[in-house]
TrEMBL record:
Gene3D superfamilies: Spore Coat Polysaccharide Biosynthesis Protein SpsA, Chain A
Domain MobA-like NTP transferase span(s) in chain numbering: 6-135
Keyword Nucleotidyltransferase: yes
Identification of the protein by name: Nucleotidyltransferase family protein
Amino acid sequence: MKPTTAMVLAAGLGKRMRPITDTTPKPLVRIAGKTLLDWGLDSLEAAGIAKAVVNVHYLPEQIVAHVAGRRAPKIVISDEREALLESAGGIVKALPLLGSEPFYIINADTFWIDSGQPSLERLALAWDAARMDILLMLTDLDSATGHCVGTDFLVAPDGALRRSKGDPTGLIYAGAAIIHPRIFKDAPTGSHSLNVYFDKAIAAGRLFGMKMHGRWITVGTPDAIPAAEAAVAGALAKAV
């Protein structure tokens, strides 16, 4: 069954993007005329997502006002103003809004331009709840712009993942996934990372990955913006 709901992780502080993020939350930084947040939401809209839960913490009023103008997907705010909860903590807080079926998660500070069939559609087609608890979208180093910290996972022939520990033959987690909420049963409510659940799924043989087709872009610092915009221009030119 194709997910109809998504969680957009948009609550980070964006410290490395200062001074831009002194006054603007990182998800609202513009690349090629579009906010990072809208790059992700547009991908969700194209995938037919009906509802996107967006968590907010830093300069939240700006994000709330920005998404108020969107018609699709329907935006629901998960308010984390009282405490920054990290990736998994934010999802746990939002679980009542996300429901009991598998849902997408995407990072609001990275995005991608697909080549061919949209990656979120391919992710849904690859999802198998009987075998998987988490299915990650992955990319290789040559298809990434702005990434400078090595790889994350090695992929077995059946798609199962294990940590690459920086192995250059590995792949990068590309900031999008399908996740089953059952993995958060008995989860703590405080601040903690999704990496805890990635490792649990690896240990259980239930973390899988799918390599995307296209260009994946991350913008870590202000001086990375020109490279990101050049990558967008190049990827869009190829797609025409």
